[in-house]
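Supplementary material to the annual report.
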Amino acid sequence: MTAPTAFMQIARAVADVFKAEPAVSPNVFRSRSRVVARQMDTAIVVYQGRAQRTEADGTLVPGVWDTQLVVEHYAREVQGATVEDALDALLQSAHDRLAEDPTLNDLVADCELASLNWDYDMDGEQTACATAVYVVQHATDHGSLT
Amino acid sequence: MSLLPPFAAYEAELFQATRSMLANATVSIDGAPDVFGIFDAPGAVGSVGAAGMATTAPTVVIATAAVPDAPVGRQALVNGVLYRIADTEPDGVHDTRLFLDLNKSGVLS
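Predicted assembly:
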């Protein structure tokens, strides 16, 4: 089996950061496609967005990337906390955890929050999702994805 | 003596009997005395994020006479579980379906 690409390594590293004890949420997934189960009060899904090679003076720099990393934070209303409070606490915890080491143990140069988006829905139970997009600056070997 | 014409009287009896036969819940709105209701909570999906979150869409059918004025936003205790009334759908005759939101936080919005 070939070595994972730098992009997959980054997504895995971020998921591992969230899973490290004490876990930010007991439910951290990579590229989840099924709905978040009812038994899960919170969940985090991490996946790669768009990767773009860095430009300098109008020229693409070999092997230097800005890669979007998408982090979806899911929460539902729980005993004693509104959905807004539950989601806000999850988002804050996850961001704080990532900010502790934005180099992901020297895997990348930096990891910076670029945008946030919130969804709320109520269909019998209140559910919500905050989607954070981080831009990760990192390098690959010239002509390679690793 | 009922002023209802015969058919309406029979219909009212039928609805009441149906509710009694099928009742699976006791319902109290804002602390009012319990009434019988027909409760269900089918699965649903909250449209949030790319994946969505599994939820339920609970409703309960009770006698329209037991529904207070301006019911939306009031608390409903159904089988001991606290909900908010999100919407109502009267059948125009005897019964009203209450659309419920689970109120785990205990906070009324």
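Chain B has a mean pLDDT of 89.
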